[in-house]
């Protein structure tokens, strides 16, 4: 299997480490090797947080600039900050308004690098579903709808079911299902 590289970014308190855990556990459950690294920076004060996750064979945990297949970001500004990590042909998933994303100032770079940007208002959606702290889960579900990478949406959903505490399991699965469908409608508009 080819190694698949994920960079996950956001701000302290948004749940980047939970996202990494879901992806890593799903990969392990499928028999893949994983290697990862996290930097917390000023996480406790809302500062930048980034996590690197390699699924497959890897010799080092950090992903170099131009080496990530996927960038999942819980903050639009952090998506732009970590954009150089995406390789040519990579995919960007951001918690951002779909009408204003991506910013016109990076559109030329995205075109040149053949990077496919995808956005949904994950924070707003999680809040509307009654769980504002589940933006991270909403982004994983949104990513899963596109069927790219080594982890299927069914496998990611099974991991969410497994690691969710009983009182939150039903809500977490509802968020996953709704946000997965939002992603699906972007692929196959009605």
How does this structure look, described?
The protein is of the alpha/beta class. The chain has one domain (4-183): 3-Layer(aba) Sandwich (Pyruvate-ferredoxin Oxidoreductase, domain 3). The protein contains seven helices and six strands, in the order E-H-E-E-E-H-E-H-E-H-H-H-H. The protein has helices at residues 16-29, 76-81, 104-113, 122-128, 135-144, 153-163, 166-187; strands at 4-11, 34-39, 48-55, 68-73, 86-95, 116-120. Strands 2-3-1-4-5-6 form a six-stranded mixed beta sheet. Strand 4, helix 2 (76-81) and strand 5 (86-95) form a beta-alpha-beta unit. Helix 1 (16-29) crosses helix 6 (153-163). The termini are far apart.
Kindly report the spatial arrangement of strands forming the biggest sheet: 2-3-1-4-5-6
Catalogue the unreliable spans.
Answer: none
Arithmetic mean of pLDDT: 91
Strand content: 15-25%
Helix content: 40-55%
C-alpha Rg, in Å? 15 Å
Number of domains: 1
CATH superfamily: Pyruvate-ferredoxin oxidoreductase, PFOR, domain III
Overall structural class, as computed from helix and strand content, comes to alpha/beta
For the sheet with most strands, the description reads: 6 strands, mixed
Number of strands: 6
């Amino acid at each position: 299997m080819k190694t698949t590289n994920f960079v996950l970014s956001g701000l302290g308190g948004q749940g980047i480490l939970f996202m990494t855990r879901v992806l890593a556990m799903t990969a392990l459950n499928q028999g893949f090797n994983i290697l990862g690294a996290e930097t917390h920076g000023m996480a406790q004060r809302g500062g930048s947080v980034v996590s690197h996750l390699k699924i497959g064979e890897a010799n080092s945990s950090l992903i170099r600039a131009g080496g990530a297949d996927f960038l999942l970001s819980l903050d639009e500004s952090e998506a732009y900050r970590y954009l150089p990590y995406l390789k040519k042909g990579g995919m960007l998933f951001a918690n951002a308004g779909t009408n204003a994303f991506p910013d016109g100032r990076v559109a030329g770079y995205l075109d040149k690098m053949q990077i496919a940007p995808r956005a949904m208002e994950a924070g707003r959606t999680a809040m509307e579903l009654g769980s504002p702290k589940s933006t991270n889960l909403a982004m994983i579900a949104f990513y899963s709808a596109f069927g790219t990478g080594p982890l299927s949406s069914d496998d990611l959903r099974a991991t969410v079911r497994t690691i969710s505490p009983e009182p939150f399991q039903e809500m977490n699965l509802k968020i996953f299902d709704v946000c997965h469908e939002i992603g699906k409608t972007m692929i196959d508009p009605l």
